[in-house]
């Protein structure tokens, strides 16, 4: 029984390592032309489907690979994984909506046209790709561009809070503290400069 369990755990290690290697290969494919014919094809598919989000996708694979190695059979799809997916979809949707101004045609594109155009733009490393278009096109129809951006920024922030398990109040308190520290530092710096000016004037008079 222990031997079977050990073999079972080794299987998780192997699969985790393979995912990490795959992630490295994906990054080589995205940033270099030295990944061969397959790498070039993968690059086109990732950019077309995810747009700029293609550069985030390998990170998800790395996280999954590390989780498999460390957690093995104890790994479960908890709220953090779902928040990461929400984060990615919200990001792709925002990228698509922002890029819409450049892909809008004289005639309003249909749902299918929007996806094809977004895929083409994604190949150039623009927008949120076809996936961003699938969600973004529907949202813009319902809430217009500004409303859709506001909604997705809200979803983006919610995903970050869920992933980090931090309350919004804590985030606001941290921002407030940072601003107060910056303000105090600025005031102290101004006071020091004001003190040095009279001294310099005295030296000049002497």
Describe what this molecule looks like in 3D.
This protein has 206 residues and is mostly helical. It is 83% helix and 0% strand. The chain has helices spanning 2-31, 36-50, 57-71, 79-103, 111-123, 129-164, 168-205. The radius of gyration is 25 Å and the shape is extended. The relative contact order is 0.10. The mean pLDDT is 81.
Instruction: Describe the sheet with the most strands.
Output: none
Rounded to an integer in angstroms, the radius of gyration calculated over CA atoms is 25 Å
Q: Tally the helices.
A: 7
Arithmetic mean of pLDDT: 81
* Bulk shape: extended
Features:
about 210 residues; mainly alpha; about 85% helix
Give a quick rundown of the structure.
The chain is an all-alpha fold. Helices cover 83% and strands 0% of the residues.
Produce the secondary structure layout.
Elements: H1 2-31, H2 36-50, H3 57-71, H4 79-103, H5 111-123, H6 129-164, H7 168-205
